[in-house]
Write a structure and sequence with these properties.
Pfam families: Vsr. Keywords: DNA damage, DNA repair, Endonuclease, Hydrolase, Nuclease. This protein has 154 residues and is of the alpha/beta class. Helices cover 43% and strands 14% of the residues. It has 4 helices and 5 strands; from the N terminus they run H-H-E-E-E-H-E-H-E. It is globular.
Length: 154
C-alpha cells in the first residue's frame, strides 16, 4: 500500500518536472519581459520546443529540469527503485536534447540552456546576475549557444 502511494507521488513529481510553465521558467520570462523583451512560448515548430523564442534576436531559451534532462548535479538523483528504467529514460532524453542541439547549431537560431539548479536550491545564482548574463548573450553575443548551471557548492 505504501509503495503504491509512493509510486503515485513520484509520477506526479515526474510530471511536474517535465511540465511547461514551471516556476523557474516563469521567473526567467517575467525578468526578460520586465527588461523589454518580447517573445513567443513553446514553439513546437522548432527543434526541442523551446520555452522562449526571441525571434528578433534569433535566440531560443530552454529552461531544463535537471532530473529530466540528465544534468549532473544535486537536483538529479536517480530513484532507488526502477533505477534501470529511469536511467534508460533519462539517457533517451539526453540523446534527444543532443539531436535537437545539433539541428539548432546548423540552423539560423542560437540557443541558451538554463538549468533548473541555476534558479533554485542552494546552487541558485543571484537573479539579476543570471538575467544580465542572458541579456548580454541575447543582445551582444554572437555565440551560437550558452549554458548556465547552478553555482558549485562545496
Ligand atoms: Zn542541475
Amino acid at each position: 500500500m505504501a509503495d503504491v502511494h509512493s509510486k503515485a507521488a513520484r509520477s506526479k513529481n515526474m510530471r511536474a518536472i517535465k511540465a511547461k510553465n514551471t516556476q523557474p521558467e516563469l521567473l526567467i520570462r517575467q525578468a526578460l519581459y520586465a527588461r523589454g523583451f518580447r517573445y513567443r512560448l513553446h514553439d513546437k515548430g522548432l527543434p526541442g520546443t523551446p520555452d522562449i523564442v526571441l525571434k528578433k534576436y534569433k535566440a531560443l531559451i530552454f529552461i531544463n529540469g535537471c532530473f529530466w534532462h540528465g544534468h549532473r548535479c544535486h537536483l538529479s538523483k536517480i530513484p532507488q527503485t526502477r533505477t534501470a528504467f529511469w536511467l534508460a529514460k533519462i539517457s533517451d532524453n539526453i540523446a534527444r536534447d543532443q539531436r535537437h542541439q545539433t539541428q539548432l547549431l546548423a540552423s539560423e537560431w542560437r540557443y541558451a540552456v538554463i538549468w533548473e539548479c541555476a534558479l533554485k536550491g542552494k546552487t541558485r545564482l543571484r537573479a539579476d546576475y543570471l538575467i544580465d548574463c542572458v541579456e548580454d548573450w541575447i543582445i551582444n553575443s554572437n555565440s551560437k549557444s550558452l549554458e548556465i548551471s547552478g553555482a558549485s557548492v562545496k
